[in-house]
């Protein structure tokens, strides 16, 4: 078998299937083990106990798929046209959803394409044994992608490519073929620390180290309990995930838009009014998020997140009324966040009323309106 030719064919087949880049590496991740152990020991994984439960397995892909000697790592762009970052983030009455979650859940789409890639390889090499992964098992996809030359680790811990930025998904095929390997690319973040500075909650505690307990993506997606009060004002109107560290990254000036129709934003999730989302009951939530990664957080956490965003919105009697109407039927956890939001809204409305009263009195006394 000419494995060099087969590797070249695999990369072309991958591009034909919609992957923007395909790389090949071995499955040795032993150098990642110490870093992972330190991170877990510091408790930076928060409530994601499943990361600690399978910690040893994460650095041993060949135990996930016995006989595997190579990982074929792929990436797929997901940034939609007219992503509308500024429009949504700058309007506190709208809900911001991380751009990766605006369309269809990427897991099924990429896994299907990886299975098709595996079938193509198997048709050319009957001895192939493979297993596809898309964030679906304890596998360290970013270290594998970096070893396979798909990019370098940015200071925000995401994989970066100088020609494509970081707006892409990753996936892998573990295979039993001794294919020629690609080389890692040079790290090019240099002295830039923009991602660390912009993070609303300062979750990037040092270059290449993310404290998930402070990360808005963790707080709004992975955390199933109450959001710590210290972080609620910093979350702003981000109701599912956060993209700030990618938005500020200079390399994302070169990011390519996706041409996958499944990743196009759903209209009701693209710059939605917070009060409209707050009105969804559980049946509506399930119907509107069918086939979306958002569904996995559940309606309770969805309400929790929106309550926080409403608490951060400008004072509005309509928001206070909507929060009060939903309070009695909400769970204890959501009630806690509703009460926090109500206190914020009522305090803000009180300030507005005082400002109006001062203005009225000033006008009555014949003073200038801007006094």
From TrEMBL:
Listed InterPro entries: 4Fe4S_Fe-S-bd, 4Fe4S_Fe_S_CS, QueG, QueG_DUF1730
UniProt-annotated binding residues for [4Fe-4S] cluster 2: 199, 215, 242, 245
Cofactor note: Binds 2 [4Fe-4S] clusters per monomer.
Subcellular locations according to the entry: Cytoplasm
GO molecular function terms attached to this record: 4 iron, 4 sulfur cluster binding; cobalamin binding; epoxyqueuosine reductase activity; metal ion binding
Positions bound to tRNA: 224
Name of this protein: Epoxyqueuosine reductase
Requisite cofactors: cob(II)alamin; [4Fe-4S] cluster
UniProt keywords, alphabetically: 4Fe-4S, Cobalamin, Cobalt, Cytoplasm, Iron, Iron-sulfur, Metal-binding, Oxidoreductase, Queuosine biosynthesis, tRNA processing
Chief localisation class: cytoplasm
Catalysed reactions, as listed in the record: epoxyqueuosine(34) in tRNA + AH2 = queuosine(34) in tRNA + A + H2O
Binding site for [4Fe-4S] cluster 1: 189, 192, 195, 249
Coiled-coil zones: none
Similarity comment text for this entry: Belongs to the QueG family.
Catalytic residues in the record: 135
GO BP, sorted A to Z: tRNA queuosine(34) biosynthetic process
């Amino acid at each position: 078998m000419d494995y060099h030719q087969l590797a070249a064919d695999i990369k072309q087949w991958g591009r034909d299937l919609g992957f923007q880049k395909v790389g090949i590496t071995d499955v040795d991740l032993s150098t990642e083990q110490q870093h992972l152990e330190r991170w877990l020991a510091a408790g930076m994984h928060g409530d994601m106990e499943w990361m600690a439960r399978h910690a040893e397995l994460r650095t041993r892909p060949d135990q996930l798929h016995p006989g595997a000697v190579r990982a074929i790592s792929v990436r797929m762009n997901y940034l939609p046209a007219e992503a509308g970052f500024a429009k949504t983030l700058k309007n506190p009455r709208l809900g911001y959803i991380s751009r990766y979650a605006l369309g269809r859940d990427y897991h099924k789409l990429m896994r299907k394409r990886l299975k098709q890639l595996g079938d193509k390889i198997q048709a050319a090499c009957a001895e192939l044994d493979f297993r596809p992964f898309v964030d679906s098992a304890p596998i360290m996809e970013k270290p594998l992608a970096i070893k396979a030359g798909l990019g370098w680790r940015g200071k925000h811990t995401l994989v970066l490519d100088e020609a494509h930025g970081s707006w892409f998904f990753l996936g892998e095929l573990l295979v039993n073929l001794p294919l020629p390997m690609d080389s890692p690319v040079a790290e090019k973040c240099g002295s830039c620390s923009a991602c660390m500075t912009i993070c609303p909650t300062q979750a990037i505690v040092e270059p290449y180290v993310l404290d998930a307990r402070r990360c808005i993506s963790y707080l709004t997606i992975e955390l199933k309990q109450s959001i710590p009060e210290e972080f609620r004002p910093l979350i702003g109107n981000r109701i599912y995930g956060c993209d700030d560290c990618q938005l500020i990254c200079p390399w994302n000036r070169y990011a390519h838009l996706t041409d996958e129709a499944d990743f196009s934003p759903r209209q009701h999730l693209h710059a939605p009014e917070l009060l409209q989302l707050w009105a969804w009951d559980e049946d509506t939530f399930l119907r509107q998020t069918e086939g979306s990664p958002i569904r996995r957080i559940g309606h309770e956490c969805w309400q929790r997140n929106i309550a926080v965003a409403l608490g951060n919105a400008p004072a509005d009697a309509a928001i206070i009324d909507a929060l009060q109407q939903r309070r009695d039927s909400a769970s204890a956890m959501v009630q806690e966040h509703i009460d926090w939001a109500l206190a914020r809204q009522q305090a803000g409305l009180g300030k507005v009323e005082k400002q109006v009263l001062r203005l009225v009195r000033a006008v009555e006394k014949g003073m200038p309106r801007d006094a």
